[in-house]
Design brief:
There is one protein chain. The protein is 31% helix and 20% strand. The protein has 206 residues and is an alpha/beta fold. It has one domain: P-loop containing nucleotide triphosphate hydrolases (Rossmann fold), CATH 3.40.50. Strands 1-3-4-2-5-6-7 form a seven-stranded mixed beta sheet, with helices on both faces. Strand 6, helix 4 and strand 7 form a beta-alpha-beta unit. The longest helix is centred in the middle third of the chain and has 17 residues. The radius of gyration is 16 Å and the shape is globular. The chain starts with 7 loop residues before the first strand and ends with a helix.
Length: 206
């Protein structure tokens, strides 16, 4: 069993003061509410119901922490965390919830020291929306890497997929040379091993 298959729920937080203060490496998953973020996390970790999708898009406003592996010096602690961030971009979210999301998420993205990298989930048919760009612009000044997963790649033919990947790489390159992108399909399992390699490397576990 791989280390990602052993990933388990650790805690949830909707306020910054509730975040774990263990100083362990974190990689966060961000994306629009309908981009397939929770499904991607489940597929990467080879688990069916690790991350949950809300029945009402945009409803979940929590940061969910998942423990990866075991700490080398204390087996009661994980080696690292995956963090499932609230989905964004759903039009019916109340103004107060949206303001809370923007404050909490932007502060976490920009100032969280243990955060090593951002996995940005984007629909391959509509990459780099305005809200995706906002997320990139929050995070890029940290100098940490972004790895984009272009989900639902099975909905595109080969030329469309290649065009989406190329345009995404060009878009990310405007914000630095550490950023990468790949095609991904939870349905066809396209790009799963590549995504797993990136996650483990970014966590310092490979």
């Amino acid at each position: 069993m791989s280390i990602l298959q052993q990933t388990r729920f650790f805690t949830t937080a909707d306020q910054l003061h509730q975040l774990p203060m263990l100083g362990l490496p974190e990689v966060a998953f961000a994306g629009r509410s309908n981009a397939g973020k929770s499904t991607a996390i489940n597929v990467i970790c080879q688990q069916g119901r690790l991350a949950f999708s809300s029945k009402t898009p945009g409803r979940t406003q929590h940061l969910n922490f998942f423990a990866v592996g075991k700490h080398a010096e204390d087996e009661e602690l994980p080696a690292a965390f995956l963090v499932d961030l609230p989905g964004y971009g759903y039009a019916k979210v109340a103004r107060e919830s949206k303001a809370h999301w923007e404050e909490t998420l932007s502060t976490y993205i920009r100032h969280r020291n243990p955060l090593q990298a951002l996995i940005l989930i984007m629909d391959a048919r509509r990459p780099l929306t305005d809200l995706d760009i906002q997320m990139i612009e929050w995070f890029a000044p940290t100098g940490k890497p972004i790895h984009a997963l272009l989900t639902k790649a099975d909905k595109l033919n080969r030329s469309e997929s290649n065009a989406a990947l190329l345009s995404t790489k060009r878009g990310l390159a405007a914000y630095g040379d550490k950023h990468t992108a790949q095609l991904f399909s939870s349905l066809k399992k396209t790009g799963v091993e590549e995504a797993q390699e990136h996650v483990l490397r970014l966590l310092g576990l490979k």
